[in-house]
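ARCHIVE CARD
Drawer: 12
Card no.: 0347
Subject: one protein chain, sequence and derived structure
Cross-reference: see card 0346
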Amino acid sequence: MIGLSPMDDITDLPFRSLCKEFGADLLITEFIASEALNRDAEKSLRKMRFTDEQRPIGIQIFGANETELLDCLDIVQQAQPDFIDINWGCPVRKVAGKGAGSGILRDIPKMLKITEAIVKRASLPVTVKTRLGYDEHSKPIVEISERLQDIGVAALSIHGRTKTQMYSGSADWTLIGEVKNNPRMTIPIFGNGDITTPAQAVEAYNRYGVDGILIGRGAIGNPWIFEQTLDAFKGHAIRTIGVAERVSVCRRHLLAAAQFKGERTAVFEMRKHYAAYFRGLPNFKHHRIKLVETTDLAGTLAVLDQIEDSLG
């Protein structure tokens, strides 16, 4: 199973739809703050939206306060996702610094206590996304995984880095493999980290025996990676994505994002995707500068037309 790993301001509804179209088996929303859901914050409520075509899909929540996390469950469950995912993995300061995300890996008893309370309160399956541990000196993921399974977590996704590593260095899949091959473990184990090509996905899947792969940064501006990975698993040739298709899908992505969250926000957030959509194209640099400098939808669409005309 190949899934899309949740990323803030990346894996929104429009982008998830493209990833599903190109073969993603499993989708998860951007992470959503429990506190924001409880005060009906518009942006957070919008992040929960999905279409039936995107199933199976999970809504991911984060927070450090048990009461707030439990209080938001009714709101999440009213959206009727297939499962609820708890983010115990985000390493960024604004999240982890408050004890949420991977910041909770400094307090494993609290992590387990909150997770168990959510599992008991929720009427949907609960999954967890986490990391190997807090830092190089503390990587208790094998023990954590057993205890999460014991309290009723339905599946576990593991990013092969510690909190303090952030996204630096290389992901260590050996401990992910240890979790999966632990005879005590019976729940599905998904691996995540440094999967940017179909070959890497196939190699990790075969080498470590995980139940699935979650692709994060490798999917940014590259929804085709799911189709290509599935072809690689089948031993099929991986097709080349031409300029016309890249422009077409990028344009669809931009227009869907503008309709979903407004032109201004869409134009700004799409800047994270452009370099990847057109990676490897010769003479693309000046087009990229135009894309990131343009501030309106019409202007951005005009630049995309120029890319197709001049590079296609």
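Annotation on reverse: The mean pLDDT is 96. The longest strand covers residues 27-33.
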